[in-house]
Specification:
FAD/NAD(P)-binding domain; alpha/beta; Enolase-like, domain 1; binds nicotinamide-adenine-dinucleotide; seven-stranded mixed β-sheet; 15 helices; globular; binds flavin-adenine dinucleotide
């Protein structure tokens, strides 16, 4: 087995796997290093299991809005079993086969930079192997859950995204620290699967504070209706858990403490760069790896180091990591062959628009591009229009009491959409239409001729354009 490859990819999450695929398509050889499971966080402890847990909760809510339908109590065992199927029972044989079929060499072990173009791999059996790269090393080590320095919190061994997505039972009482995407999705999943008391502690003034405020309000209403308690302007100041795995008490700045059976910390992510040898090439040994729009590390001479996915901090989303990976793999192949490396397809332009994201709660919240506040802060001349989704026939037909809203932020100078947000049941699949409009910078006068079918929720596009004045 040779130890020299054109490209060495460190980390076999969705981003790393896709880089390997693209460089091999480009005619290069690749090795992919992974100590845990090929497929990464996304496949086993993030996107896939979280959506498997949320799907039945979403369906129950949907059915509840249609008279004549009733759902029996959720069979939690069956839901957890389907989640286990979705994560391949934490067995990566299929994904390893995929990597090998690329074909790329799959190297099981922890990778660590060991000077320029060298990666030292520590295998699970303790053996070491040093790989060298002829052209590039790509860091795709992802991120891990951040745990804030609250006294007693680490000692309490709280759940993070890892444990909650892999839960084997649902706690009776759950306290959640954080008001972001993981907190909202997992609070709703656990509550919908039977948690009797779910309390979400939000430091700021609303859930999902990077989304349009109306989306946060609709989600807060839904949480309140379901009996999920959201406390804003508060945070944990101290945590106590005298018995491992026993009751856990969260102390707040004021008022009585909250006792629960489990505690979930969902306060963001830390790039997985500690211990990967960045200091051996003169970089700080932690933090994100800054990259240019071709994913090349800006601080490294000779341009042999790249970083894709969560580790570069651009957009912590699987689809954006995979997008970065495709263009990174292609640009490495182009540079290795001495071909043009400045084609538009070889530069990340999507992240700058504001990536598309779906929060799989009920209501679903999805957005692409800039919020009104972000567009104004960026200096655009902005006009925003909104429409009540419940007034769209296609949405009304989905269920009684349909609550939802849409908003389009327009650049008045060019009359193109800068950002779109939808909040409501069943809006996730609408998002790509907005992504095309925003990324394609489609003029409103042209969008007017994209006629949405009746009676679909997509008719909200027509209503937004009418609200704008077309
Ligand atoms: C609960 C949750 C739900 C999410 N849901 C969604 C969603 O619905 N949609 C979405 O787009 N995004 C979602 N995300 C975000 C998504 O999971 C990440 O953006 C995505 O996993 C990033 O991919 P990645 O390849 O960069 O990193 P990862 O998936 O984290 O993979 C990195 C890999 O690198 C490996 N690695 C680490 N250190 C080393 C080393 N030293 N040597 C070799 N290998 C190493 C790790 O073991 C891991 O396998 C979710 C995140 C969480 C926490
Ligand atoms: N459906 C999806 O697309 C999806 C689902 C889950 C996660 N993700 C991705 O994973 C990433 C991580 O999600 P996340 O929810 O952990 O992070 P986040 O950045 O979305 O939210 C973190 C939340 O924690 C709060 N917070 C931060 N530090 C705190 C502290 N010390 N005390 C109290 N609150 C604190 C923040 O104010 C924020 O509300 C996100 O960036 C998201 O893009 C995506």
């Amino acid at each position: 087995m040779g130890d020299e490859f054109d490209v060495i990819v460190v980390g076999a999450g969705p981003a790393g796997e896709n880089v390997a695929d693209r460089v091999v398509r480009g005619g290069l050889t690749a090795a992919v290093v992974e100590p845990r499971l090929a497929g990464g966080e996304c496949s086993y402890w993030a996107c896939v299991p979280s959506k498997a847990l949320l799907r039945p909760v979403d369906l129950v809510a949907e059915a509840g809005r249609v008279p004549g339908l009733s759902m029996g109590p959720v069979d939690v065992g069956a839901v957890l079993a389907r989640r286990d199927e979705a994560v391949s029972h934490y067995d990566d044989a299929g994904q390893v086969r995929w990597v090998e079929g690329v074909p790329a060499e799959f190297v099981r072990g922890r990778g660590r930079l060991d000077g320029a173009r060298r990666v030292r791999v520590s295998a699970p059996d303790g053996s070491e192997r040093v790989l060298t790269a002829r052209h590039a090393v790509v860091l795709a080590t992802g991120s891990t859950a951040a745990v804030p320095p609250v006294p007693g919190l680490r000692e309490a061994a709280p759940w993070t995204s890892h444990e909650v997505t892999a839960a084997t039972s649902v706690p009776e009482r759950l306290t959640v620290i954080g008001g972001g995407v993981v907190a909202c999705e997992m609070a709703q999943a656990m509550h919908g699967l039977g948690a009797r008391q779910t309390t979400v502690l939000v430091r700021g003034d609303r859930l999902l504070d990077r989304m349009e405020p109306f989306a946060s309000e609709l989600l807060a209403e839904s949480f309140a209706d379901a009996g999920i308690e959201v406390r804003t302007h508060t945070e944990a100041v101290r945590v106590e858990r005298p018995e491992p795995g026993g009751k856990v008490t969260v102390h707040l700045p004021d008022g009585p403490p909250i006792e629960s059976d489990e505690l979930l910390v969902a306060t963001g992510r830390v790039p997985a760069t500690i211990g990967i040898g960045l200091e051996t090439i003169g970089l700080p040994g932690k933090g994100t790896v800054e990259v240019d729009d071709s994913m090349r590390a800006t601080a490294v001479e000779d341009g042999w180091l790249y970083a894709v996915g969560d580790v570069n901090g651009r957009a912590l989303l699987t689809h954006m990591g995979k997008y970065q990976a495709r263009l990174c793999g292609d640009v490495i192949a182009a540079r290795a062959k001495g071909e043009r490396d400045d084609l538009p397809s070889l530069r990340d332009t999507a992240d700058a628009y504001g990536p598309p994201q779906v929060v799989f709660t009920d209501p679903q919240i999805c957005a692409v591009g800039r919020t009104e506040a972000a567009a104004r802060a960026a200096g655009f001349q902005v006009r925003a229009v909104e429409y009540d989704l419940g007034s769209v026939t296609g949405a009304y037909l989905l269920g009684d009491g349909y609550r939802g809203r849409a908003k389009m932020v327009v650049d008045e100078e060019r009359r193109v959409p800068l950002g779109v947000t939808f909040a409501g049941p069943g809006v996730a699949e609408l998002l790509h239409s907005a992504t095309i409009a925003v990324t394609g910078e489609v003029p409103l006068d042209r969008l007017w001729h994209a006629v949405p079918a009746f009676p679909t929720v997509s008719e909200v596009w027509l209503r937004l354009l009418e609200a704008y004045g077309l």
